[in-house]
Specification:
The complex is a heterodimer. Chain A has no helices and eleven strands. Chain A is mainly beta. The radius of gyration of chain A is 13 Å and the shape is globular. Chain B is about 0% helix and about 50% strand. Chain B is built from no helices and twelve strands. Chain B is globular. Chain B starts with a strand and ends with a strand. Classes of the chains: A mainly beta, B mainly beta.
Chain lengths: ~120, ~110
């Protein structure tokens, strides 16, 4: 069983389109995250959700919106895609957000290419 | 603000040689520290973490790291490199009050020569 899964693995789309990336975890974790990894492999937190409540929202354009239908899912919606959105997006999950020493478990990533 | 610096974006060693990947952090209080590994086209996997217990932390695949407060360092080592260790390695820091916010270094790519 895959602990943290993401779909799709690859996403190629045109500028201006709207797309979604789905994430599911079967670990029973309380908190889920979205990270962006750029072409230089630099990882940066975008969002985290704890019990369906947005906890962290870094300086991310409002074209990006996380949506969590339940504790096991955190989807990422992106409107009006731009060339600069091309990156690998990782979903992650962990126990108890307040315990910041908890390991985060990462999904396999979604490579988004905007043409 | 928390920050992590990984010295050397690319490290190359021979199979069987010592692996040393450097990580320095900036924090006003001792943070929680992590090393993650990313194999090609995969997500990140935790190697080990420091949470203020023992300063020498042992992880998976024979890796270990030592927390040195005086040097604000958390370098990753492995006595003998295997070909399978070739990957990207990330050091990360989590501020105790940051509610899980991980700040990653820029990563070090480890190559292992036969």
């Amino acid at each position: 069983d895959t602990a943290v899964s993401q779909t799709p693995k690859y996403l190629v789309t045109q500028m201006g389109n709207d797309k979604s990336i789905k994430c599911e975890q079967n670990l029973g974790h309380d908190t889920m995250y979205w990270y962006k990894q750029d072409s230089k492999k630099f990882l940066k937190i975008m969002f985290s959700y704890n019990n369906k409540e947005l906890i962290i929202n870094e300086t991310v354009p409002n074209r990006f919106s996380p949506k969590s239908p339940d504790k096991a899912h955190l989807n990422l919606h992106i409107n009006s895609l731009e060339l600069g959105d091309s990156a690998v997006y990782f979903c992650a999950s962990s126990l108890e957000l307040a315990r910041s020493y908890n390991e985060q478990f990462f999904g396999p990533g979604t490579r988004l290419t905007v043409l | 603000a928390q920050s992590v610096t990984q010295l050397g974006s690319h490290v190359s060693v021979s199979e069987g040689a010592l692996v040393l990947l450097r990580c320095n952090y900036s924090s006003s209080v001792p943070p929680y520290l992590f090393w993650y590994v990313q194999y090609p086209n995969q997500g990140l996997q935790l190697l080990l973490k420091y949470t203020s217990a023992a300063t020498l932390v042992k992880g998976i695949n024979g890796f270990e790291a030592e927390f040195k407060k005086s040097e604000t360092s958390f370098h990753l080592t492995k006595p003998s490199a295997h070909m399978s260790d070739a990957a990207e390695y990330f050091c990360a820091v989590s501020d105790r009050g940051s509610q899980g916010n991980l700040i990653f270094g820029k990563g070090t790519k480890l190559s292992v020569k036969p």
